[in-house]
């Protein structure tokens, strides 16, 4: 009883300690939320052109344009926040989107004050080994040269900023409004299209100059390995790929090394890639086109327009791309379009409760929740207090929800079940037959391919070594039985020789005393080998070449004929 009581006391103390830690963390969170109206210097209006990355359990948001309402005075309303925007939000906490979501945000220290980190808008971000790399974008202050980008390393205590160099031919950082995607399973990042900029170097008085009349038709690839990053530039063929700005680039786990799907955006005519998509095969570095079907029209707009954000969710070999918002969608119109792959069919979701968003950022959390971050209303720019910083879309129920997180598994919405079951390919056929071949290959991640390659090499080496060892073993066994058979035959021949000697010896001379069996007494002279001895010996030599040619010992007495052996083997 005393032992049980001791354990019970220790357990109670341990539980009380855990409870205290949890209460302390909760109090700190409540204190932070209650002592401040949030990370903004005024009432939140909108936040656009920023980059978002998830590292561990933290959502990090960098750069962009933040506008707040600082009062009723028209000069104060919708003021652009100066400097570098940097916010974080913990994804392992319970969030209710019905409250002021900005209270869950933390405004991180401005790194540009001490480390001259660039303020940037647009551009792309890529996460690798706990680091976040930034590429492209329009830089506002303390801009670096063409060959310098920035990276940050979030730790449990702070965030460390450093510069990184662009290595590789034909690549510089002076490009903005492109489409970026982080292909973490391939240790790669991609940045397509956009517009050229003229960097201002260290001049912090003005931003980079964007050349609005230019549209770039290049795909920049960054490959991460160890502590290095290598940039390459792949020019897209003009007959396959239309130069776009502000499009959506998505990584689809299909084909040998994955594919990229580029959609939306705008070009020099104001159109984007909606009816015909641009598809890039990573393994072969080849561009394809694929025609889609389905109605994207909502209200007076044929398609969502530019300024959309998107995520992808997979269900086996079928993939669903959720595209939200857009410059062509007004409140009351469809804000959500979904593309099913590989049938390549569009579906729109009509829901008047969906808030209109332009230039927001979308991130997927768990298996079924899409976080719609920032953005502005496509209907009015005077909506401070009505545009929430965060909206949460349930990818299965297709509704805006308020509770986060939801760890339930993804289920295919009813509206998509029919589209996904229409076949294993596009209803109108493949625009490019070679694209169909990509879907015949089961995708494996880079780690899985490397593991399989090592296993294959090991199997090959093991097979070769095993084969050689087997041949050697078989040879040894064969030699053993051959030698054993030879020894039996040799013993038989020797016995026949001995018998012949005995017969000849008995016929020519008597035994004296106790001579060796089959041989005359060594003390008596002998005229030579007994008759017939040499013939069996010659037969022995011809049939078994490995036997000694002559077994005559050297210690025979001089009077003994040199051909007489002292002893025969038994």
Automatic annotation (TrEMBL):
Residues 517-528 have a biased composition (Pro residues). Residues 1-26 form the signal peptide. Keywords: Membrane, Signal, Transmembrane, Transmembrane helix. The chain crosses the membrane at residues 459-482. Residues 508-570 are annotated as: Disordered. This is Uncharacterized protein. It comes from Dactylellina haptotyla (strain CBS 200.50) (Nematode-trapping fungus).
């Amino acid at each position: 009883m005393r032992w049980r009581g001791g354990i019970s006391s220790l357990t109670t103390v341990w539980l009380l300690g855990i409870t205290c830690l949890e209460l302390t963390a909760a109090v700190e969170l409540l204190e932070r939320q209650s002592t401040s109206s949030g990370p903004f210097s005024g009432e939140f209006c909108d936040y656009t052109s920023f980059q978002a990355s998830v590292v561990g359990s933290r959502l990090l948001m960098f750069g962009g344009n933040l506008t707040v309402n600082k009062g009723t005075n028209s000069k104060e309303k919708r003021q652009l926040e100066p400097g570098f925007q940097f916010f974080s939000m913990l994804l392992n906490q319970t969030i209710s989107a019905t409250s002021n979501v900005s209270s869950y945000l933390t405004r991180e220290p401005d790194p540009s004050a001490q480390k001259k980190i660039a303020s940037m808008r647009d551009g792309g971000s890529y996460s690798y080994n706990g680091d976040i790399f930034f590429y492209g974008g329009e830089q506002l202050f303390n801009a670096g040269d063409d060959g310098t980008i920035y990276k940050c390393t979030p730790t449990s205590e702070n965030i460390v900023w450093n510069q990184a160099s662009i290595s590789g031919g034909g690549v510089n950082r002076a490009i903005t409004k492109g489409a970026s995607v982080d292909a973490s399973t391939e240790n790669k990042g991609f940045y397509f299209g956009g517009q050229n900029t003229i960097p201002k170097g260290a001049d912090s008085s003005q931003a980079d100059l964007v050349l609005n009349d230019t549209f770039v038709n290049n795909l920049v690839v960054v490959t991460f390995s160890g502590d290095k990053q290598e940039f390459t530039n792949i020019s897209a063929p003009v007959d396959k790929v239309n130069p776009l700005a502000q499009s959506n680039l998505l990584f689809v786990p299909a084909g040998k090394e994955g594919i990229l799907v580029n959609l939306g955006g705008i070009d020099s005519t104001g159109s984007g890639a909606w009816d015909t998509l641009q598809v890039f095969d990573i393994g072969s570095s080849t561009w394809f086109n694929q025609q889609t079907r389905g109605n994207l029209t909502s209200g007076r707009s044929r398609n969502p327009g530019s300024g959309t954000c998107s995520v992808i969710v997979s269900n086996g070999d079928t993939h669903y791309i959720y595209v939200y918002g857009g410059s062509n969608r007004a409140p009351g119109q469809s804000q959500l379009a979904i593309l099913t792959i590989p049938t390549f069919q569009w579906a729109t979701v009509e829901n008047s409760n969906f808030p209109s968003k332009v230039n927001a950022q979308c991130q997927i959390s768990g298996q079924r929740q899409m976080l719609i971050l920032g953005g502005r209303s496509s209907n009015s720019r005077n909506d401070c207090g009505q545009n929430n910083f965060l909206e949460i879309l349930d990818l299965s129920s297709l509704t805006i929800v308020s509770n986060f997180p939801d760890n339930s598994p993804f289920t295919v919405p009813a509206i998509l079940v029919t589209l996904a079951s229409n076949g294993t390919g596009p209803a109108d056929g493949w625009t490019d037959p070679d694209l169909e071949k990509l879907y015949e290959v089961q995708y494996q991640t880079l780690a899985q391919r490397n593991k399989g390659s090592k296993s294959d090499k090991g199997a090959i080496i093991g097979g070769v070594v095993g084969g050689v060892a087997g041949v050697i073993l078989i040879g040894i066994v064969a030699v053993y039985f051959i030698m054993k058979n030879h020894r039996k035959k040799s013993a038989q021949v020797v016995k026949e020789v001995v018998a012949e000697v005995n017969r000849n010896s008995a016929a020519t001379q008597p035994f004296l005393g106790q001579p060796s069996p089959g041989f005359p007494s060594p003390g008596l002279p002998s005229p030579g080998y007994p008759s017939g001895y040499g013939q069996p010996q010659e037969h022995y030599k011809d049939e078994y070449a490995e036997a000694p040619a002559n077994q005559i010992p050297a210690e025979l007495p001089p009077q003994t004929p040199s051909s007489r052996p002292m002893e025969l083997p038994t």
